[in-house]
TrEMBL record:
Keywords, in A-Z order: Lyase, Periplasm, Signal
Name the record gives this protein: Heparinase
Subcellular location: Periplasm
Domain Heparinase II/III-like C-terminal residue range list: 401-562
Chief place of localization: periplasm
Family annotation (PANTHER family): HEPARIN-SULFATE LYASE
Superkingdom per UniProt: Bacteria
């Protein structure tokens, strides 16, 4: 791509992102650089504890979470304890991924880079300062089996908060860099106060800590809004939650922050959530972040007796709940590894696996649909108990075959099979080149897999381009043309030349018992065309891919579950009783069983087998996978 063509693509993509959003980003950067933004001048005073006191009504009938109390965690992964174990706080400027510390962490936050802080991925530094451990310690202080254990948990909670406040004075250090990170802390502190029944009369250090965070969040909210993603929802929710709390305590600024937070939370729900429940980020885990944020805001609203959110807000929240519920397997809680996956889970109140989405779906279903999504998942009900929500009597299962036209998804469900077909529908920027990716699940097992994300700034000396691999076409179950992505990469988180879908069909019943068909296609920026039709039955998947318009080669990839896959003949791969067959109407240039990679948990990658079938001219590829009884 020459510089002129790239410039034109950048201009078109900028227009698609929205002139108002571009202006917001430019204004933010200019205000920070010139030192006039309130988040870079006149920081509030340092905060001292104590922050919480012993709860008056212990609840030993509940089971506290062990993660982040008996052992540290990051992105859903259990980590080895540091020196001093959990008796000592973490080093707040050290990465939980690499163990490296930010050089000169006492610098003002705006002088520390996101990607050049010397620690690899800065998310490894931020992870401990998201305050998941606040929730875990609060649970232990409320529900540990005996009083001594509860007192020790309370002591640790106050000690860690005091240490974090000392090590991260307002406006200094990496943990003040991001308004969303500050917002997560506000929401977790509020949920801890709710569980400990210390909202109406908190210890003096707690409202001071909340006010310091809101003073950081508010001046850069317009930058978060410009992203059209969960940054805006998180920061608006924090302003609403923290502002209403301070307002009830009669503290200055609270009412204004509350009004602003409510306004923009309502605005974000209306703009970023489609009528069908799709979210702007095209990601299952970021969808959970959105849903958890809305759930915490709604639970807080009820606790403080504030007027309800608008009917439109509640409709979009219900639709978003149904979207995630439909993609979540009710038996395992897992869901397709669709889109960016940064390891976030905003309401970690149980020791369920990070990839178990049921607690979040259950909480949102109770709040926004007055029902339970799961009647046989005790961990999902535990979240309701911790937030003092009685389980609704009505049962609302979410699974069905449906098209999501706002987000670009076709979902087929039949028997124990779930198939998801991703097609191009972009009101908001795509984070991955995953056009016509197909995810396949059978009774909760992921048979055809998405790669995930791994890291936004991977550290290491292996020389591999992981930033290019994981978001790219080669990391998805689709066809790659001429060794390139389906959209040109214009930045770390930006693709250009967003195509439109064609030939949409279904999901609809086929002529076979239990059969569901669906189809979609597109033409990319260089004229390559791909149309995919999928037939899903309770015991078989058949996919027909028609490709044309490429110059040299087209490669179909299927990313398989780990196992001893072997070629049975020149068309079929076998692993035990599983057989996957690919045929073509044109000569096949190569069939390979290659090693690929997936990242089900952020910061960790594991190998998996990938079958690649290559052709050199326009034609049709037919894949069949039968599921033996």
């Amino acid at each position: 791509m020459n510089s002129r063509h790239r410039s034109l693509l950048l201009l078109r993509t900028a227009w698609a992102l929205g002139p108002l959003n571009i202006a917001r980003v430019l204004l933010y950067r200019l205000s920070v650089r010139c030192g006039v933004n309130r988040a870079v001048r006149r920081p509030p005073a340092a905060v001292a504890g104590p922050f919480f006191r012993a709860p008056e009504h212990p609840r030993p009938e509940l089971t506290p979470r062990q993660g982040w109390y008996l052992w540290p965690e990051a992105f859903g992964l259990r980590l080895p304890p540091w020196e001093g174990a959990m008796a000592t706080p973490p080093r707040w400027s050290r990465s939980l991924i690499t163990g490296k510390a930010v050089a000169d962490p006492d610098r003002p936050w705006w002088k520390i880079g996101d990607f050049d802080a010397g620690v690899g991925d800065i998310k490894g530094v931020w992870e401990a300062s998201r305050y998941d451990w606040v929730l875990a310690a609060a649970q232990q202080a409320l529900a540990a089996p005996d009083q001594d254990q509860r007192e020790r948990a309370l002591e640790r909670l106050n000690h860690w908060l005091a240490d974090a406040a000392r090590a991260n004075p307002p406006w200094f250090g990496p943990n003040w860099k991001c308004g969303q990170e500050a917002s997560i802390r506000v929401l977790h502190l509020a949920m801890a106060a709710l569980m400990l029944e210390q909202v109406a009369a908190p210890e003096p250090g707690l409202p001071a800590l909340i006010a310091a965070h809101l003073t950081r969040i508010a001046p850069t909210l317009h930058y978060a809004l410009a992203q059209d993603n969960n940054h805006g929802t998180s920061e608006a929710a924090a302003l609403f939650v923290g502002g209403s709390w301070l307002a009830d305590l009669g503290l200055p600024g609270g009412a204004a922050w509350e009004r602003r937070g409510r306004r923009w939370l309502e605005n974000r729900a209306a703009r970023l959530i489609g009528e069908d429940g799709s979210f702007s980020q095209h990601s299952v885990t970021y969808h959970r972040v959105l849903l958890d944020t809305l759930s915490m805001a709604e639970r807080w609203r009820r606790a403080l007796g504030r007027r309800p959110f608008s009917d439109r807000f509640l409709r979009r929240a219900r639709a978003a709940t149904a979207w995630l519920g439909n993609l979540t397997d009710p038996g395992t809680g897992d869901a397709p590894n669709l889109g960016a996956n940064d390891g976030a889970r905003f309401v970690p109140l149980t020791d369920t696996d990070y990839r178990d989405f049921r607690p979040s779906v259950q909480l949102a279903t109770a709040l926004f649909a007055d029902a339970r999504a799961y009647t046989d998942c005790p961990a999902a009900d535990e979240v309701l108990a911790w937030l003092d929500l009685p389980p609704p009597a009505r049962h609302q299962p979410w699974g069905r075959s449906v098209r999501y036209p706002d987000g670009g998804y076709l979902v087929a469900r039949t028997g124990g099979v779930l198939a998801l077909l991703r097609y191009p529908r972009f009101r908001f920027r795509p984070a991955q080149s995953d056009l016509l990716h197909l995810d396949l699940w059978l009774h909760g097992e992921n048979l055809l897999r998405d790669a995930g994300t791994y890291s936004y700034n991977p550290a290491g000396d292996d020389g591999a381009d992981w930033n290019g691999y994981f978001p790219g076409a080669a990391a998805h179950n689709t066809v790659q043309f001429d060794g390139r992505d389906q959209m040109p990469r214009l930045g770390r988180f930006l693709f250009g030349a967003w195509p439109s879908a064609s030939g949409l069909q279904g999901p609809e019943e086929s002529g076979e018992p239990g059969g569901v068909t669906m189809a979609a296609g597109y033409r990319d920026w260089r004229g390559a065309e791909h149309h995919r039709t999928a037939l899903v039955t309770p015991n078989r998947l058949t996919v027909v891919d028609r490709v044309a318009g490429f110059r040299q080669r087209a490669v179909l990839r299927w990313r398989l579950p780990p196992g001893d896959w072997q070629w049975r003949d020149d068309r079929s791969l076998v692993c035990g009783r599983r057989v996957l067959t690919v045929e073509a109407t044109v000569p096949v240039l190569g069939r390979r069983l290659a090693e690929g990679w997936e990242s089900r948990y952020y910061s960790r990658k594991t190998p998996l087998p990938v079958v690649e079938v290559e052709i050199g001219e326009a034609g049709t590829l037919t894949t069949e996978w039968a599921f033996p009884e």
